[in-house]
Design a protein that fits this description.
Layout: H1 5-34, H2 42-60, H3 66-82, H4 103-133, E1 138-141, H5 151-154, E2 167-169, H6 170-180, H7 182-189, H8 197-206, H9 226-238, H10 249-256, H11 263-307
Helix pairs in contact: 1-4, 1-6, 1-7, 2-9, 3-9, 4-8
Length: about 300
């Protein structure tokens, strides 16, 4: 099958040029709508940093000694329990009001709607333009063979069973450019540009208030209960055990360079395990002894009351 060269000049190249120009214009309009970046709220930043600090302690606590780890663990657990880092310290027990009356929520929602409109409207207009003027066009043939599974992706709008899979329709050419022009936009606009195809597809699929959510809002747009999040992080921290990363480091170094046999490390590990098991056994025996004594004391107390 041969293609008319006019299809290349009047369909293939114009679609690509229009998509590049629309992406540049959309990026500039998005920058104008965003305006100057807002200053972060001190209390909200404190909540976020407190959670990050707890996560860092859980992940990298082995870099500090055991006493330092336990002191930090106790301090963070107590702070999370009391709600020290909350934006509103009594917010855990405070009933929630109407979120639509919160100015920050309404502002975040409006910003999200503006961004969604800037992502959705241009792509919808371009797709409608291609469907209206170039519906059913076959534009280009890919220079490599493909399997039959790619037929539905590369030949949208052209329902034929006998056409080779490597031919690309006009609508499929639009989708290929939508994802393939990201490097061009990065070259022209820099990294972090507003002409992001993945963000466009997410906006088209969600079309909800989840994109309007701020840093302390759930995907449904409702405020997060930071007190519950802190309590959950506290439980994770309580379950974290400390393992000193520099324990027996001198022995490991000597074993690494062949100055001592590797069996020395095994003996030290066995001694550590035996010591830990001895502590557990002592704690279990102490609890078992304390339980009968408490029962005897309670029984004697009841007996004294009966005699009285």
């Amino acid at each position: 099958m041969l293609l008319d060269p006019a299809i290349r000049d009047w369909v293939l190249i114009p679609i690509m040029i229009v998509m590049v120009l629309v992406g540049i214009v959309r990026h500039q309009v998005t920058v104008l709508l965003n305006g100057t970046p807002k200053k972060a709220d001190l209390k909200s930043a404190r909540e976020t940093k407190a959670l990050q600090r707890c996560g860092i302690l859980r992940a990298h606590g082995f870099h500090i000694p055991e006493h330092a780890f336990h002191s930090r663990k106790a301090y963070i657990s107590e702070a999370f329990e009391k709600g020290t880092y909350l934006k509103e310290p009594t917010g855990g027990n405070k009933p929630r009001g109407n979120v639509m009356q919160d100015p920050a929520y309404v502002e975040n929602m409006m910003d999200g709607m503006k961004k969604n409109m800037m992502n959705i409207v241009p792509q919808t207009v371009i797709m409608g333009w291609i469907n209206f003027f170039f519906s059913g066009f076959v534009l280009v043939r890919l220079p490599f063979p493909l399997t039959v599974r790619f037929k539905g992706m590369l030949q949208r709008g052209v329902e034929t069973n006998d056409m080779d899979v490597s031919w690309v329709s006009s609508l499929s050419w639009y989708f290929l450019n939508l994802f393939g022009l990201q490097s061009v936009f990065t070259l022209l606009l820099g990294s972090g540009h507003a002409a992001d195809a993945m963000r466009d597809m997410q906006a088209m699929s969600t079309m909800g208030m989840g994109n309007a959510a701020g840093p302390n809002l759930t995907p449904t747009g409702q405020p997060q209960d930071m007190h519950k999040i802190f309590l959950g992080e506290k439980e994770n921290l309580d379950l974290t055990e400390h393992e000193w990363g520099l324990e027996n480091v001198e022995t490991r170094l000597l074993v690494k360079y062949g100055k001592k046999p590797a069996s020395v490390l095994l003996d030290q590990k066995k001694a550590k395990i035996a010591k830990a098991s001895g502590r557990l056994a002592a704690a279990a025996s102490a609890s078992s002894v304390a339980a009968p004594s408490a029962a005897v004391a309670a029984a004697s107390k009841k007996k004294g009351r009966r005699q009285v």
